[in-house]
């Protein structure tokens, strides 16, 4: 979804008004400054929490509204930041956070590495699908998936039907820099792990592209990427509200 900045601003202002229970479109009262909104997308007297790493109340409210009762589901390759960014977004939105790998480890009482070593990838995928199907029944939550989860047709389908998916997209060098610091990813225990990661990237990116929203997981502090996610969700919701009133 590409929007020019002024379109985005006006869509957000309209959506923010609707969140307040009013019309999403400016009326004379609002423009004359007599409504509760100060024309800058903020309530009178409300201090915006905008800093380099903080979302405004308006952005948070729109992002939260984008979910409704759905789960926000992060997909993407190993090292994209699904677990780290998902946790932050859960905190910022005030929504419970669950990482599907952590949930798999909890129910199996084994680490992901031990699951792969003792039962193989196929068993791991079967468990992953079951866990995600169960997680997608409740909501709203923030759910971070393991990198292979969205590749499974059943899992992808349930995420599309019941969740709002966000692909955290990163380039190979960024991913490699992040994953090479830990040895917890069994798929990368190969002779040439960076090449393995590149092969996974080539195979998976066309599928991750089916996610509803894409956010670049750039080389920046986690909070900066999380803020990009909040803004992408806010824009998504603002456009949704604008479309509904066409
Ligand atoms: N934007 C970021 N900037 C710097 N480090 C990050 C960023 N996002 C994630 N990381 C770090 O990279 C590593 C991998 O992130 P993680 O959330 O585990 O990725 P994933 O769950 O997608 O495999 C973690 O150590 C995390 O703290
Ligand atoms: O890409 C994959 O197939 C996998 C990614 C891992 O999760 P992260 O993407 O959170 O690292 C974990 O589920 C498992 O090692 C398999
Ligand atoms: Mg993870």
Q: What do these coordinates show?
A:
- The chain is an alpha/beta fold and 246 residues long.
- It has a single domain (57-244), classed as P-loop containing nucleotide triphosphate hydrolases (Rossmann fold, 3-Layer(aba) Sandwich), CATH 3.40.50.300.
- It has helices at 5-19, 28-31, 57-67, 82-93, 100-108, 112-135, 153-162, 172-179, 193-208, 222-244, and strands at 71-75, 97-99, 142-144, 163-169, 213-216.
- A 5-stranded parallel beta sheet has the order 2-3-1-4-5.
- The protein is globular, with a radius of gyration of 20 Å.
- Bound molecules: adenosine-5'-diphosphate, shikimate-3-phosphate and magnesium ion.
- Residues 78, 82-83, 101, 112, 146-148, 185-187 line the site of shikimate-3-phosphate.
- It is an enzyme of class 2 (transferase).
- Residues 15-53 are annotated as: Disordered.
- GO terms for molecular function: ATP binding; magnesium ion binding; shikimate kinase activity.
């Amino acid at each position: 979804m590409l929007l020019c900045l002024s379109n985005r601003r006006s869509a957000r202002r309209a959506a923010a008004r609707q969140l307040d229970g009013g019309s999403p479109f400016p009326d004379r009262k609002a423009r004359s400054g007599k409504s509760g909104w100060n024309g800058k997308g903020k309530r009178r007297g409300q201090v915006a929490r905008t800093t380099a790493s903080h979302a405004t109340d308006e952005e948070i409210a729109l992002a939260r509204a984008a979910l409704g009762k759905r789960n926000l589901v992060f997909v993407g390759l190993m090292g994209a930041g699904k677990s780290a960014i998902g946790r932050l977004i859960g905190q910022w939105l005030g929504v419970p956070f669950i990482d599907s790998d952590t949930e798999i480890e909890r129910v199996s009482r084994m680490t992901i590495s031990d699951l792969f070593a003792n039962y193989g990838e196929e068993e791991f995928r079967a468990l992953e699908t079951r866990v995600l199907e169960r997680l997608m029944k409740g909501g709203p939550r923030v759910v971070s998936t393991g990198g292979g989860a969205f590749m499974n047709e059943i899992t992808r389908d349930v995420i599309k039907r019941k969740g709002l998916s966000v692909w955290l997209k990163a380039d190979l060098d960024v991913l490699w820099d992040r994953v090479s610091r830990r040895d917890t990813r069994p798929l990368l225990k190969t002779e040439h792990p960076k090449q393995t990661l590149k092969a996974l990237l080539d195979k998976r990116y066309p599928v991750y592209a089916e996610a509803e929203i894409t956010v670049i997981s750039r080389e920046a502090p986690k909070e900066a990427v999380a803020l990009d996610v909040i803004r992408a969700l806010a824009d998504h919701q603002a456009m949704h509200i604008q479309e509904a009133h066409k």
